[in-house]
Specification:
Order of helices and strands: HHHHHHEEHHEHEEEHHEEHHHH
Shape: globular
Largest sheet: 4 strands, antiparallel
Structural class: alpha+beta
Radius of gyration: 20 Å
Bound molecules: cobalamin, iron/sulfur cluster
Amino acid sequence: MEQAEKTLPNAQVDERDVMFSRAALRSGTPNYAAYYADKAGLKETDDALRALPPLLSPGTTFFQTEIMAEAGSHFDAIDAMEVDAAWLGKQLAILQASSHPTQTLKAIAVELGAVAAGWAPLEKAFIYSHKGRLPENHGLPITLEHACALVFLVEMDWKEMQRAPKAPTLRESARQYRRAAHISLHLEALLKGFGCQAKHHYDAHYDVILPPLAVLAGLGEMGRNNILIADNYGSRVRIGCVTTDFSADLDSPVDLGAQAFCEVCKKCAENCPSKALELGDQREILGVKKWPTDAERCYRYWRQVGTDCGVCMAACPFSHRNNALHNLVRWMVRRLPWSHRLLVWGDAVMYGRKWKAKG
Ligand code: B12
Ligand code: SF4
Ligand code: SF4
């Protein structure tokens, strides 16, 4: 199935409707009153979710004091992050001397710690209509006139992800959120120094929906797990980006054979502890065919266990280590569709069909 054939969603998403925004609403505040005046049907579900212990907190299944403390420190560091002035001066000189700044900016993203980067057109359908995550700008309409996005991926450590859904996976998410924020902020400063408009997008500070932009940037395909499957790393990546009015040579979507493989595989959906993923066919949502996620089920599980789970990233056969054997299998998936059933069977023999978290 060619990603390029996919149409764009026929409406924008309001960030106020996104699970994290709903979970952040506080009873008794004007934002809470306004939201549930409009969305009364969600109030009972959301109140019950908010009554569960917060992530990282004692009382959740996988709470571990030191690990949660480290994870918390990474999230705190994101909000206090600054751009390194010496780095900026050096990279700006390189960019100004470059005969191909589109490529140079991608290379700088990689030098900053990304494993891949690509340029996507900034489609309006992937910009939220309104802000929703933070009380201070809740409901503010978003105007983002940028033409494109430099989208990049950071790798989630394979060993840590083998421990999903236990505490170390949340720490790994926090570490990589911090890395992605660092890259995004530095690219923003660099583009501004280069005379362009630019805006970072990371953690709770997004104006855009990242996975479909990563698809447009040629970084992978959407899987049955409803997140990006990237070449070499599978779903074991976090995404970050900077949007800009820089006039870049855009990248094109790629066909990794992933969606065809997902038709057969279904391992993520079978192993999802909250049964939030789709075992059946793709469904049309806002005009786009996809395997949806039941966000409430997923997030409820997080609040029970105290982590961000991650089983659907870790269990995916595409997320195996980036080595010669697995890259040969990735090549077969892409080139030999008849091998998909055999490869699903091979994965089950080698790694087991049922997910078992390592200690
Ligand atoms: C809200 C949110 C959640 C919510 C809701 C998820 C959801 N699908 O709605 C919950 C709490 C459930 C969640 C869970 C997880 N999340 Co989350 N989440 C987000 C967040 C902040 C916003 C996404 C959003 O707006 N969703 C609401 C609507 C748009 O969702 P949707 O209609 O289901 O659309 C999804 C896809 O279909 C796709 N999409 C939307 N429109 C279109 C159109 C086309 C043509 C295509 C191809 C795709 C596409 O994008 C959406 C997000 O995947 C993003 C960051 C960001 N700004 O993108 C991270 C993000 C999507 N999450 C991420 C991850 C990794 C996870 C988890 C694995 C947890 C973890 N350990 O990290 C699970 C996986 C759940 C799953 N299998 O779907 C990563 C994905 C990385 C990747 N490899 O793609 C992101 C990008 C964060 C990041 N910076 O890396 N998440
Ligand atoms: S993060 Fe866990 S609960 Fe959520 S969809 Fe993935 S496997 Fe299911
Ligand atoms: S586990 Fe299988 S079905 Fe799920 S996303 Fe990965 S390849 Fe697709």
